[in-house]
Amino acid sequence: MTLQFTKMNGAGNDFVMLDNRDLKLALTKEQIEKLCDRHRGIGADGLLCVEPATEGGDFKMRYYNADGGEAEMCGNGARCFGRFVNHLHGDTLTKIRFETLAGMISAEFEAGQVRINMSAPHSLKLAQTLPVAGTDLTVHSVNTGVPHAVVFVEDLDNVPVREWGAGLRYHEAFKPKGTNANFAKVLAPGSIAIRTYERGVEDETLACGTGMVACALIHHELTGSPSPVSVLVKGGDTLKVGFEEPNKSDYTNVTLFGPADFVFQGTVQL
Fold first, then answer.
1. Quick one: 246 exposed, middle or buried, by C-beta within 10 A (0-12, 13-18, 19+)?
2. Is 208 a catalytic residue?
3. Catalytic residue among 36, 49, 208, 215
4. Of the chain's two ends, which shows fewer C-beta atoms within 10 Å, N or C?
5. What pTM does this model have?
6. Given 36, 74, 80, 215, which residue is catalytic?
7. Active-site residue 80, yes or no?
8. Closest CA to 79 of 221, 237, 218
9. How does pLDDT run across 144-163, given as a tens digit for each residue?
């Protein structure tokens, strides 16, 4: 089978984009994993499919991690998804709403930048002490569409992201599904830098949208820093996380604003 695809990236988080509005594609877990393989395939952190809406949105977003498993949501992927859909419509759209397993998401377009409205965060927990790789870590957690653990550190450059990230990802506290793991440093009030170990990729990635949102909200919880919070990711981009908090720890109108770039288009044999 010859498959047409578009490659995109959001702040360095890269994706294979497929137009499946006619629902003719039914890829297996193994095929998705092969497409995302950086040596034997296109190479990506994940794969996204555009499908027809079924629950009142304009479209449906299907997101698969690089291991071929379907996930609820991906913030950087959602921004790329929105811009890809707009591209399919001749860049004539100003705003769309699309369905995800984490709920309805909206996207607005501003000169190559995309602002998405995230689903409401939940399951916030602060300051759990968890043993990881022989070290007791102070771990905060929140679900921003997918589960995230957040650890604030002083020396972000030398954090053992793979070791601690894998330890948190499979930790007893986050079973059965596991969690993504983020390590963050405060640069200034309202400005943080992060590194993320992504579940499903099973490694550090250059960026993670839902991880940015998780870290920004935890930063606000710990310091009271107002919206928006600037988040610098390993890929070098700085994104903005906005939010409203009408009641303590009850967030609404959570947004993520940043780039969504086209890399190349092509065909691949499956």
1. exposed
2. yes
3. 208
4. N
5. 0.94
6. 74
7. no
8. 237
9. 999 999 999 999 999 999 99
